[in-house]
Structures are given as structure tokens and as C-alpha cells.
Amino acid sequence: MRANHIKDLWAEGRVATNIFLGLPDSFAAEIIAGQGWDGVTIDMQHGLIDYQVGVTMLQAISQFEATPMVRVPWNDPAIIMKVLDAGAYGVICPMINNREEAKRFVGACRYAPTGYRSTGPVRAAFYAGPDYHQHAAETILTFAMIETQDGVDNVDEIFTTPGLDAVYIGPSDLSVSMGGLPGGDQRTPEVMAAIETILAAAKQHGIKAAIHAMTSEYANEMIEKGFDLVTLSNEYRHMATRAAQVLGEVKV
Questions:
Q1: What is the pLDDT of residues 11-44, one digit of tens each?
Q2: How does pLDDT run across 170-198, given as a tens digit for each residue?
Q3: CATH superfamily for domain 5-249
Q4: HSE (CB half, 13 Å, CA atoms) of 234?
Q5: Domain coordinates in residue numbering, the chain
Q6: How many Å is the Cα radius of gyration of the chain?
């Protein structure tokens, strides 16, 4: 089975870089994937992407080394199984608040006897290889998003879920759930304390830890804290920022 680049990096003790895609465009996905990211994640939760376009984006990403991943819109087994059948090598699931929800999520990503994923990998078998079914469980990454106070309160039980590979922290929703303001790169003491709690629990349970960042500065701070994967925003934010910068440099 084709290797998972992020898992290979982690096995070497290295940190992985990731980027989200929110624009429903396979050419944009191809351009981004060709820049050297370790992971490229199609955002079906807050991005403008439906399933069919997501499949073409997975095809565009797949010619590069980057691990193709999807953030699904919700903890719904139907869409989780479909993105896996389309060739996603990692699934990021939002709003996991307790062990039961984590178990439901992971179960949809694993074949029996450890899960309840239906067999029929369609494109995944073409991308990964004919031995996909035998090695899918050890290759596909499962990320549970902890982004609420309930999730923080239940991290220890969430992280005992068999088959859960990693936690993914969403700082903006985490802040809102704690009565704060939305926005990335959170540094308020309350939110930072929650992030530290999640990270410490992940290390204790042998779970990899990922976090969303809006800037390279914040991403580097999180790497120094011990995170295993950092996401540096998404392609349309980078596009807007760079376009504004270039325009501002022109003297008219």
C-alpha cells in the first residue's frame, strides 16, 4: 500500500506541515500540493467544496508526496466513508466532545472487526494499491477535533478511543466555547491553558497533536510547545494576503 507521508515523518520524530483548501478548484489544489507541504487537507466543513469537486481535488493532490486529507463537515459516517473511498489518507472530524463521539468517528474509518466501515474503496484502491483493505487501518490517519470546553473536559476519555491517531485543536471555536472571541492564533490565558491541557493529555496517551495556525509565527510557537503537525491557514487567505501585498508595492 502506498505510504502515508505524514506517518513516515512522525516515525522519524519530525513535525509535519499542512494546509487547508477551501476553494472548489482542482488546479488550485494541484498548485498548492506541488509546493512541498507534508499534508494537504480539503476542507468540506467551512470550505466551499462539495463531494464531487473534492474527488477531483484529491486526484490533483495525489500526484505529489503530500498526504491527501479531508476535514469532513460533521461526524457523519456516510461522508466519512465516502471521502475514504475517494482516497483520503487522513480524516479530520470536527466537534468531538466525548468518547462516544470519538468512537463513532473512528469506527467509520476502520473496517471490521475494529470498526464498521463498509468495504468498497473504489478510487482508494487505485491510489493506494490492491492491498488497500489489508493495510488501511495502519495507514489512514484519524484526527478528532477538540474545540469546545466539553471536549477539553473529556480529553482523557476521548484519547483512550482505540484507533484514534491524533487530536486537532481548533483555537477559534475553542475560544468561543469558553466565552471568548473567534479568531485564529489565540493567546488569551484561558485558551492557552486549554491548549496546554489538550497537548499534555495527548502526550500522556501517545496521541499525536495538531493545531490550526493563521501565521508562521504562531505555527513555530506551537512546534516549540511540542505539536506534531501545524496547519498554516488555507490557500485563499494566502492568495488574498499576497495579492494585497503585491498591490501595495506598486506605486500608482
A1: 999 999 999 999 999 999 999 999 999 999 999 9
A2: 999 999 999 999 999 999 999 999 999 99
A3: Phosphoenolpyruvate-binding domains (3.20.20.60)
A4: 17
A5: 5-249
A6: 18
What is d(CA 58, CA 20) in angstroms, rounded to the nearest whole number? Answer: 13
- How far is residue 33's CA from residue 212's CA, in Å, rounded to a whole number? 18
pLDDT at residue 65 greater than cutoff 90: yes
CB 184 within 8 A of CB 216: no
pLDDT of residue 171: 96
Cell of 107: 469506527
Q: What's the Cα-to-Cα distance from 14 to each of 5, 7, 10, 243, rounded to whole Å?
A: 11, 10, 5, 32
Greatest extent of the chain over all pairs of C-alpha atoms, in Å = 66
198, 92, 207, 116: which is closest to 161 by C-alpha?
Answer: 207
Q: What percent of the chain has pLDDT over 90?
A: 99
Report how far residue 237's alpha carbon sits from residue 162's, in angstroms, rounded to the nearest whole number: 36
**Residues with a known catalytic role:** 46
Q: What is the reported pLDDT for 57?
A: 98
Q: 230: number of CA atoms within 13 Å, CB side?
A: 20
* Residue 202 pLDDT greater than 90, yes or no: yes
User: In sequence order, which residues have a C-beta less than 8 Å from that of residue 195 and are 6 or more positions away?
Assistant: 169, 171, 174, 186, 211
* Single-letter amino acid code for the residue at 214: M
Asked if 78 contacts 104 with a C-beta cutoff of 8 angstroms, the reply is no
Distance CA 237, CA 184 (A): 12
* H/E run at residue 209: strand 208-213
